[in-house]
Design goal:
Blueprint (H helix, E strand, L loop, with lengths): L8 E5 L6 H15 L4 E5 L1 H6 L5 H6 L1 E2 L5 H6 L6 H10 L1 H5 L2 H9 L4 E5 L12 E5 L2 H8 L3 H4 L4 E4 L2 H10 L5 E3 L19 E5 L8 H14 L4 E5 L5 H7 L7 E4 L4 H7 L2 E4 L9 H8 L3 E5 L4 H5 L4 E4 L3 H11 L3 H18 L2 H19 L1
Parallel strand pairs: 1-2, 1-4, 2-3, 4-5, 5-6, 6-7, 8-9, 8-11, 9-10, 11-12, 12-13
Helix pairs in contact: 8-10, 11-12, 11-16, 14-17
Length: about 375
């Protein structure tokens, strides 16, 4: 045993919005804390207020932190030019300036390691090891394209999935990175028991790679063919107007909305659809849908089939006719649909262990502190 076996860790989410990655960070904090691990949750004040209804205990625990400071605001305009930003980073000035506000708070609170989610503004933290979480292909692309000095400002990168790891490695092959041993998912302690309805749910941000508009077009045709079913397209984002436009005329059967309580919708639905590019894995929404007894219709992208499917759903090509055909086939056999729902629940327990993930994280934290010391 060494002094680094259980470094006091800050899980840092300095963004203002709440989506899958932020939810996962908060749940990881909760699980580590409940496991007796020395951990704190640092949140942007706006995010702290936003989570109060769904995570009251975690909101009460959270330490308020807003990234940046006067020097960072002064330097930020240079980021608009890749060439100027690269010159600045490679000059060594950002490393010299560091993150004074972050560093002071870490010292005051006895933090020995920071695990950073989503915030690309935090870098060059002096005298403190940092892990940057690669939460998605978008984040991997953005961070992998940063100037070399910026990429090397973190002690270690942690990739949420094999496809994200491959993407980041292709852009930054000589950067220290560890791939997660699986997704973090903790089954609800108290199962939600309601009567299942003939409902299909799609729940993702309305951005191009998640294909909400494509599914909205499918949903319009689906409810024409199966008027005994309804569809919920849950989310929000830059493409919401296009999603709503695609379902004009069938809004009584296809609902477009946002909910902070996805579990309530998934507890009564029978089918969950996810069409993410380049990979559905390790979507928290898919895991939640499985745990609450939904058959799956997934795009055949990335590691989706090998990780999520096993007698509990079907994969589809990403074109409108193929998705519609597979969805109609999926709902055509009531008994098979029920069997797939049961299999989804079983697969969550068989493949996705919260304990294994937490053990991986504890080992990662200890190793990172040793590397950074």
């Amino acid at each position: 045993m060494t002094q680094h076996d259980r470094p006091k860790t800050a899980i840092v989410v300095a963004t203002e919005s709440l989506s899958g990655a932020q939810n996962r960070a908060i749940k990881i904090y909760r699980a580590l804390k409940n496991d007796g691990y020395p951990v704190e949750l640092w949140l942007n004040p706006a995010l702290k207020r936003l989570i109060a209804a769904d995570y009251p205990a975690e909101a009460d625990d959270a330490i308020e932190y807003r990234a940046g400071g006067p020097i960072h605001r002064l330097l930020r305009p240079l980021q608009r030019s890749k060439r100027l930003w690269a010159m600045l980073e490679n000059s060594g000035l950002p490393a010299l300036v560091g993150e004074p506000r972050f560093e002071r708070l870490a010292t005051q609170r006895g933090i020995e390691l920071a695990h950073i989610f989503l915030d690309l503004q935090i870098g060059h933290v002096r005298n403190l090891p940092t892990i940057f979480e690669l939460t998605s292909p978008d984040i991997a692309d953005t961070m992998g394209s940063q100037p070399l000095a910026r990429r090397r400002s973190h002690t270690l990168y942690h990739a949420v999935s094999p496809s994200v790891a491959r993407r980041f490695s292709a852009l930054s092959p000589n950067t220290s990175m560890v791939e997660a041993n699986g997704p973090f998912f903790s089954r609800r302690v108290e199962p939600i028991t309601v009567i299942k309805e003939n409902t299909v749910v799609f729940a993702h941000r309305f951005i191009p790679r998640k294909n909400a508009v494509l599914f909205a077009r499918v949903a319009r045709r689906f409810v024409d063919r199966r008027p005994d079913w309804r569809v919920q397209i849950l989310g929000r984002g830059s493409m919401e107007e296009e999603v709503r436009s695609a379902i004009k005329g069938v809004a009584d059967k296809v609902e477009v909305a946002f909910t902070s309580d996805l579990a309530a919708a998934l507890s009564q639905s029978r089918v969950f659809v996810s069409l993410i590019q380049p990979d559905n894995y390790p979507s928290q929404s898919v895991l939640e849908a499985m745990s609450l007894g939904n058959a799956l219709l997934l795009s055949d992208t990335g590691d989706s089939v090998s990780k999520f499917l096993g007698g509990n759903g079907v994969a589809t090509d990403l074109n409108e006719d193929a998705i519609l055909h597979n969805l109609l086939e999926l709902v055509s056999d009531e008994a098979e649909l029920d069997r797939m729902a049961d299999r989804s629940r079983e697969l969550v327990d068989e493949r996705f262990s919260a304990r294994a993930y937490l053990d991986h994280l504890r080992s990662l934290y200890a190793t990172t502190v040793e590397i950074g010391s």
